[in-house]
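Standup, Tuesday
Yesterday: got the pipeline producing structure tokens again.
Today: sanity-check two examples.
Blockers: none.

Example 1:
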Amino acid sequence: MEKTQKTVLVIEDEVDAAEMFAEMMRVNGFQVVKTYSSAPAISLISSEMPDLVILDVMMPDVSGLEVLKFMRREPSLSNIPVIVVSAKSMPSDIKTGLEAGASVYLTKPVGFLDLKQAVEKVMNAAQQA
């Protein structure tokens, strides 16, 4: 049975930001799973197999980039699109995020439209693959 509702995993340590991203995704018809810490994120990604991950870079425990690098090394997770959302907005930060395997790198604050467009872009690309 194919699941009709796509799942987004939001990994964001700021509760307000996580809730905002989750709400943006719900409005777009996604089922949302949230975690405020990157440590359980890897097992969550493996168990949930989300259609998309929204990932903050600066986390209190494990860097979001480490989570991203892990995903890209794991064959079962390597094709899941990841939208990195970070306050780190230097060109070098963005380059590092994209090189680590981010599908899209957005800098905070992220507007609803920017996130919606990024999600549509990566979901369409994933469907083409």
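Example 2:
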Amino acid sequence: MKAKEIQDLIDFISKSGLDEVNIETESFKLSVKKNSRIVVANETLVSQTPAIFTTPVNTPSLSTPVVDTPATPATPKASDESKYLTIKSPMIGTFYRAAGPDSPPFATVGDEVKAGQVVCIIEAMKLFNEIESEISGKIVKILVENASPVEYDQPLFLVEPN
């Protein structure tokens, strides 16, 4: 595969909704992943640029591209948590519980929040967006790990309404 073909593939993936594409031919194996997680010394770093992994393959295998679609995240149990309201992500980006590494979190489990109160930050394209609660109540569960990627409309917090 030539460099131009690889660049075209990366452009295609970035425009599509796919997070990962694997291509395997007789001569090589190519894996392109968007928003890949890298674990270094018990810390998770998220790479916003596509990661490309190529591996030479000596045995013949698939000659057509293999596209894996990501599994949808598990939703909370409706029976146990049906009385709670959710604060959802209004955008795609990286979820942060605090303004900085040394700052206290905007909201923790047990905190009372009011409509309009900042509960987290979502970073998208180098812009840090303060996310405000649209509901008032007590936070009973934080559904997302700090510094992890979130999707549009993904539940972030469970809130017991006042």
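Quick observation on example 2: The helical segments are 3-15, 78-81. Confidence is low (pLDDT under 50) at residues 36-50, 59-64.
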